[in-house]
Amino acid sequence: MHEHASTAGRQAMGTRLHCRAMLQSRPIKHCRRCGTAVDYRVPPEDNRARAVCPACGEIHYENPLNVVGTLPVWGEQVLLCRRAIEPRRGLWTLPAGFMELGETVAEGAVRETTEEAGARIALDGLFAVMNVVPAGQVHFFYRARMLDETLDPGPETLEARLFREDEIPWEQIAFRTVRQTLQHYFDCRRSGQYTLHCADIT
Ligand SMILES: [Zn+2]
Predict the structure, then answer these.
(1) Ligand 1 mean position to 156 CA, how many Å?
(2) In sequence order, what E strands does the chain have?
């Protein structure tokens, strides 16, 4: 999972705590249409600053990104991936990444699981939806059944392996949303009832 927006986002928050609408986690410098340096200002009849091109008038709207992934299960064990890329290189995460244009949330979750872990899975239902407001992201995780034990980590993953609950490296989990999703999974498994976990990180 990339969260490349989050560091810049936190820095922006530090200097603009008084105005969250000004969060610029993905600042735009140049016009996508003509290449001129943009100005951030509130367009007529709008209510927040946008990257506006002073040459051609193009307005660049910035909106949250979806991060989509899975919690793959093999028997009593769950699959985690150790990150080969920043941020949080070397820490453990669930397979997940930015949704691409032209795919559904479910398709993106399966694709990321294939790319990062090389696991073959079947989805078992949407399990967690979390707003990560400071990063401008929404994270979605599906429960998934592994179809076999095959793992073939991609270039973004140092290592992919299965963990029993008592083996989970809780102090080395890369992201808060991943920790919450795992905790919710083990709680649900104990209760025998899998419910959708919704949370806001603000
Ligand atoms: Zn322009």
Answers:
(1) 35
(2) 39-41, 50-52, 59-60, 65-74, 77-83, 92-93, 96-98, 121-132, 137-146, 157-163, 197-201
